[in-house]
Amino acid sequence: TPCSPGSIAPVARYAAVLARALPASSLARCEPCEPGQFQDVEGQVVCKPCSRGGYCVAGAASPSPCPAGTYGGAEHATGVADCTACKSGMSCPVGSTEETPCSAGSYTNESAPTLAERRRCIKCAAGTYQSGQQSTGCKVCEKGGYCTVGAAMVRPCAAGSYNDLVGQTDRRSG
Q1: DSSP sequence for 48-109
Q2: Could you count the other beta carbons within 10 Å of the beta carbon of residue 164?
Q3: Distance between CA 140 and CA 127 in Å, rounded?
Q4: CA 22: distance to chain centroid?
Q5: Which of 51, 147, 149, 173, CA to CA, is 20 to 30 A from 67?
Q6: What is the pLDDT of residues 8-40, one digit of tens each?
């Protein structure tokens, strides 16, 4: 019976059987892949290195992705503890290999209850804007302009219109 995914029959064992150092029956014994490795195909003789963005426990048939709010930048990770928490103003969806800064017009909500929610970029609400990257909040739209959802800057009012209030979401004609 071939070894199932997550386990292998090591090459060294085949060599030992061929050299008659081990009985042929020893080929039926499978060994689990070591932590930091996996094997997704049955009947294999070597395990694959765990890929970036995830981790592999002993006997893994596939990598487990790093949870949202974290990233895995190294191969051969052996557990969720090897996934690194993203910094403020950065986004890390499930299985991330690196942090991605939130773009202008978006931010991370540092008061969200979970790390996954705090490390997700959210568009600025109408009436607010954010001109910088990797931000943790949006600014109130200034007088003389307006801000739509996801605004990276205050849009000036068109000729013949005005806004004399802060936080406006559209222009008022005058």
Answers
A1: EEPPTTEE--TTBSSPEEPPTTEE--STT--SGGGSEEPPTTEE--TTBSS-EEPPTTEE--
A2: 10
A3: 6
A4: 45
A5: 149
A6: 877 777 777 778 877 777 666 788 999 999 999
